[in-house]
Design brief:
alpha+beta; four-stranded antiparallel sheet; 27% strand; Cyclic Phosphodiesterase, Chain: A; 6 helices; globular; five-stranded antiparallel sheet
Length: 207
């Protein structure tokens, strides 16, 4: 079955901080099969029989955003029912409404989960550190991260990514206000441009 996911890939210093902690968890608790690429999930994983409509709705919702979404990275949290340990994400109102608009547009024909349909003010944004842990490992990891220094880097998402079976299908660049193909999204030139912008934000040159 084809599986889709819409997310924001972490970039720049915040990606490095989250990756460093994830690697420490891997080494300390031997989590070979339970780590994920640092990202903020906006919808999914889900399936659909209408990829053409999915692409059209994703493009329409993304291009309708007139203000670059923002978020801040904070401490740590857990989902006890699924044994997930994550970094907390505090979104601005633009990001909240963007995520909710996606869920409302896709729900009629995509197999969204209950948490994807949560209201804008109730959805818990997060970046997963470890998941699918057995009970003992989960308890050990959750206590370990509570003692770690919080990730406090203020960050602006550059792109929203639509993935098909874990591969980039396309990405929307909020700065260029255009959709990128997979090749464009993965190009070194585009990545360098994004990193330069992130550095400018980190230096306080752009709000």
């Amino acid at each position: 079955m084809t599986r889709y996911l819409i997310d924001i890939r972490l970039m720049g210093p915040v990606k490095q901080q989250v990756s460093d902690l994830s690697n420490r968890l891997k080494e300390r608790f031997r989590l070979e099969n339970y780590l994920v690429v640092p990202h903020i999930t906006l919808a999914g994983p889900f399936s659909t029989d209408n990829e053409e409509r999915l692409l059209a709705d994703f493009t329409r919702i993304c291009s309708g955003i007139r203000k670059i979404p923002k978020y801040e990275v904070g401490g740590y949290g857990v989902f006890d029912d699924t044994r997930v340990v994550y970094v907390t994400i505090t979104p601005d109102e633009t990001l909240k409404q963007f995520r909710y608009a996606l869920s409302q547009a896709l729900s009629p024909y995509c197999s969204l989960r209950d948490y994807d349909l949560e209201p804008a003010e109730e959805f818990r944004f997060h970046a997963t550190l470890a998941m699918k842990l057995d009970w003992l490992t989960y308890q050990r990891v959750r206590w370990y991260v509570k003692k770690q220094e919080a990730v406090t880097f203020r960050h602006h998402p550059i792109r929203a990514t639509l993935l098909r079976n874990s591969r980039i299908l396309c990405e929307y660049d909020f700065l260029q206000e255009r959709m990128l193909t997979r090749a464009q999204a993965l190009s070194k030139a585009t990545r360098k441009r994004d990193l330069d912008i992130l550095k400018a934000w980190a230096d306080g040159d752009r709000e």
